[in-house]
Specification:
Blueprint: H1 5-15, H2 32-43, H3 50-65, E1 72-73, E2 78-90, E3 98-108, E4 114-118, H4 119-128, H5 142-149
Antiparallel strand pairs: 1-2, 2-3, 3-4
Helix pairs in contact: 3-4, 3-5
Length: 150
């Protein structure tokens, strides 16, 4: 299927972006639509949606924000910390979305396993079902997120 001019522009932006060093696609050679379709298909068996995941991520980030850069107990099994920088990041999709430059790190208290995400990750997952391409610095595996968050 032929790509629309808008999809070509979006893919160029995602592959080599001024917003994120290395882009949002990493070394992934698939199209953005193929990445989204594969990630959504992997979620079917979990019973969770991209929106469910984004809401849980936002809930943890909001709880951790109160710690002002220190670890906060989010629940009985996790701690989280938020690091914030001045300014905003802009969504690469063509709509007027800006999010804080903020990084959330979450740690499982028992295992010590950590995950991290940005506010832009939350937005991209919630609004575009986009977990980023394989090899991207901020790629989040949908199934791992579900296992970790729920």
């Amino acid at each position: 299927m032929k790509k629309s001019p808008q999809n070509r522009i979006l893919e160029q932006m995602l592959r080599s972006s001024r917003i994120v060093a290395g882009g949002f696609m990493g070394a992934d050679t698939r199209t953005v639509d193929e990445i989204i379709d594969a990630d959504l298909a992997s979620l079917v068996a979990t019973g969770k949606t991209a929106y469910d995941i984004a809401q849980k991520m936002r809930q943890i980030t909001d709880a951790a924000e109160a710690g002002l850069g220190t670890w906060v107990n989010v629940d009985e099994i996790r701690q989280a910390m938020v690091d914030e920088a001045r300014g905003f990041l802009i969504c690469p999709w063509p709509h007027p979305a800006r999010v804080y430059k903020r990084l959330t790190t979450v740690k499982n208290i028992a295992s010590g396993k950590e995950m991290r995400w940005s506010d832009l990750n939350i937005h991209l997952i919630e609004q575009h079902s986009f977990f980023e391409g394989l090899g991207s610095a901020f790629r989040l595996e949908p199934r791992e997120l579900v296992d970790y968050l729920f």
